[in-house]
């Protein structure tokens, strides 16, 4: 395929084509914040953003969705299966860190049992990523081995030109077919358009992922007083989990009455006390530091060990939203600096 | 089935009042074809729903050797179990499962088996007890040590009497000190202490244990003292679960998903886990 160019003024045409029977998601301003959300025309899209406030998991794993409906009759309960039938969804303007989180979500939702509510959405999603030309203090993708122009998880990768247009890199076959299907939007590029400089962050000094992994593997470190110390200021609000692109915990609850209602899958968070609370009153994670430890372990031990996938993509959202400024990268650095084998 | 969260409808065929707030439901699948093809292994669990209220996790309390129905035994404790308690014979519930691993009873052929249970921890053990009793010739001596706080709290009372009458199973029943009644014929004492007095021999013996965490902890210590190897002591871990299929993220003990890799583990395996109980 020849090199392609996406002119900014053609994006409207692209949206028009997609929303005929699908959905077009892009960064737009909502309540003075940049968020990924459905747009109907190009003027709604903002290009001046570092990273949207919400993660793009919202469109692969929605905050709430029905999985079944029930209705009580005289002597029976009628159960209706909900079949996920998502529309074709183009997610545009994704950042490389978010795109990289796709593999993590997929690994949880497809190991052994397949969650078709996730897989059907992912099958019908097309991810168009824009490489980062800027970042902020919270960004730490380079620290977890992700590049601001990485293509993992993307179907198409765009890079912004000095003129404000985008060069087009096909990443997957699906991305290629999409490009081919829109010849009037993706035009052959004349060589030599100057690219804006790609953001080039330094990895955070003192953080060593391998050392973190090794330290976490050591079972006696689970009881290390460091956990309580580092997470002492956590108030357990769970905001970090809701904006995190790899957090996937959910609850299954019934809404409605005994007569009729829906069974729904709703986001939940391991930071909440009731999350693991047994009916008996026993709670294996009865204090906040145990819940905080679980989240950290999930990112840097469970995901890599169990699912062989990355658990943290360095998007920095948890750092930005934390009301008490509990910075996960500071904890990463602290643990990287701990003595290894047996030390505790 | 594609939708992994969709339950099957089961009908309550019979209800047994076991103890105050403890009930056993005998359940049959509404879908006859599914009822015929359904099978499970001793130790597996399911998610039982009261529609309009939600799902709760219990083991399957009946043995897989008895076909055509399943039983669950639960104590009215939380929201869902309270709603389930309101149901009567003929009412519909939801069931998803069977999930999880099982007790490797096939590997135990020719061995003596010691069962230890406390209170509402008996149902998963009972599934294994009946599996062994239904294939009695496959196993050596079968011993059950079962205790509860009070006489009234003992569950499966009819079965306890039946086991006492049988020649091919030894039952040691006990209640905690102060929980006895004037006509109580069993032991008085905590399960670990009664276990130590009974002093079962570890040779060629596997042990299945389930009950309150504190009972398990002290019983395992007694078993160690008696010479039982951690490889031969099995228990079933119970944790809060919502999905049962390794997705929802709450039953994990460290990196181990109880719903997928468990709930059945040996004492030795548990020792290797992160301390997250």
Which short descriptors sum up this protein?
heterodimer; A: 344 residues; alpha+beta; eight-stranded mixed sheet; four-stranded antiparallel sheet; 11 helices; 12 strands; B: 277 residues; alpha/beta; Elongation Factor Tu (Ef-tu), domain 3; Rossmann fold; 2 domains; seven-stranded mixed sheet; six-stranded antiparallel sheet; 8 helices; 31% strand
Number of strands of chain B: 15
Give the tally of structural domains of chain B: 2
The CATH superfamily of the largest domain in chain B appears as: Nucleotide-binding domain of ferredoxin-NADP reductase (FNR) module
Helix/strand order of chain A, N-terminal first:
EHEEEEEHHHEEEHEHHHEEHHH
Report the portion of residues of chain B in β strands: 25-35%
Terminal CA distance of chain A: 56 Å
The class by helix and strand makeup of chain B works out as: alpha/beta
Rg of chain A, Å, rounded: 22 Å
| H/E series of chain B | EEHEEEHEEHEHEEHEHEEEHEH
Commentary on this structure:
The complex is a heterodimer of chains A (344) and B (277). The termini of chain A are far apart. In chain A, the strands form two sheets. An eight-stranded mixed β-sheet of chain A has the order 3-2-6-7-8-9-1-10. Chain A has one domain (4-336). Chain A is 27% helix and 21% strand. Chain A has 344 residues and is α+β, with helices and mostly antiparallel strands. In chain A, β4 and β5 form a beta hairpin. By secondary structure, chain B is α/β, with parallel strands linked by helices. Chain B folds into two domains: 8-99, Beta Barrel (Elongation Factor Tu (Ef-tu), domain 3), CATH 2.40.30; 105-236, Rossmann fold, CATH 3.40.50.80. Chain B contains eight helices and 15 strands. Chain B has helices spanning 32-37, 79-85, 122-134, 157-165, 191-198, 213-226, 258-261, 267-271, and strands at 8-19, 22-29, 45-50, 54-59, 70-75, 92-99, 112-118, 142-148, 170-175, 187-188, 205-210, 233-236, 252-253, 256-257, 264-266. In chain B, a hairpin with a 2-residue loop joins β13 (252-253) and β14. In chain B, α5 (191-198) packs parallel to α6 (213-226). The longest helix of chain B is centred in the C-terminal third of the chain and has 14 residues, at 213-226. The model of chain B has no long low-confidence stretch (mean pLDDT 96). At the A-B interface, β4, β5, β11, β12 and α9 of A face β4 and β13 of B.
